[in-house]
TrEMBL record:
Taxonomic source organism: Salimicrobium humidisoli
Catalytic reactions of this protein: N-terminal N-formyl-L-methionyl-[peptide] + H2O = N-terminal L-methionyl-[peptide] + formate
Enzyme Commission number(s) from the entry: 3.5.1.88
Required cofactor(s): Fe(2+)
This protein's name: Peptide deformylase
CDD domains: Pep_deformylase (cd00487)
Matches recorded under Pfam families: Pep_deformylase (PF01327)
Binding site for Fe cation: 110, 153, 157
UniProt cofactor note: Binds 1 Fe(2+) ion.
Sequence similarity: Belongs to the polypeptide deformylase family.
Lineage: Bacteria, Bacillati, Bacillota, Bacilli, Bacillales
Described function: Removes the formyl group from the N-terminal Met of newly synthesized proteins. Requires at least a dipeptide for an efficient rate of reaction. N-terminal L-methionine is a prerequisite for activity but the enzyme has broad specificity at other positions.
Signal sequence extent: none
Length: 183
């Protein structure tokens, strides 16, 4: 099972690479890895598992975070409208996005970043993402607000981007004109 020891931390080169597409249909090895990533995210939301294995709670994980240079990401969370998102995705791609932005008023964190980085992280408020699921299905996901933030945070990891790259260096709490908080 994946634990925090498997997660590389900022400064590790894996976090700054553009990950490679996964050949589909996925190999048994790639499927197993993505299943383990999804299981990690679920485990990280279970108090007993967190206590037993020292996990940090998370809502997503991207393969580069476990030093695997492949375009695979896992998310597991329920949004503010109680809609559940639980996916292991291969080769996710944003195919359209809003002009409008959103952000978390608390800022963002990252399982690969062992420090607080203050500031707002502006992200597209709505995105349409296509990907292939663990079951080999092509899906088109229309995501908004918190869900859009989570999926963009994970997709960034596949492109070597960290959340704090989006924070305005001079004014960390500056926002674009059309930004609405997701929380
Ligand atoms: O490091 C990761 O990719 C997992 C992050 C993803 C994330 C961070 C900020 C905003 C959205 C997604 C972890 O989930 S950070 C911990 C966390 C837990 C619950 C809600 C938001 C962030
Ligand atoms: Ni992260």
């Amino acid at each position: 099972m994946i634990t925090m020891e498997d997660i590389v931390r900022e400064g590790h080169p894996a976090l700054r690479k553009t990950a490679e597409n996964v050949d589909l249909p996925p190999s048994p090895e790639d499927r197993k890895t993505l299943e383990e990533m999804l299981q990690f995210v679920k485990n990280s939301q279970d108090e007993e598992m967190c206590d037993r294995y020292g996990l940090r709670p998370g809502v997503g994980l991207a393969a580069p975070q476990i030093d695997i240079n492949k375009r695979m990401m896992a998310v597991h969370f329920t949004d503010t409208k109680d809609k559940e998102y639980s996916y292991g995705l291969f080769n996710p791609k944003i195919i359209s996005h809003s002009v409008e932005y959103t952000y978390l008023s608390t800022g963002e964190g990252c399982l690969s970043v062992d420090r607080e980085v203050p500031g707002y992280v502006p992200r597209y408020r709505r995105i349409t993402m296509k990907a292939t699921t663990l079951d080999g299905e092509e899906v088109k996901l229309r995501l908004k607000d918190f869900a859009a933030i989570v999926f963009q945070h994970e997709l960034d990891h596949l492109n070597g981007i960290m959340f704090y790259d989006h924070i305005n260096k001079d004014q960390p709490y500056a926002l674009p004109e059309n930004a609405t908080p997701a929380d």
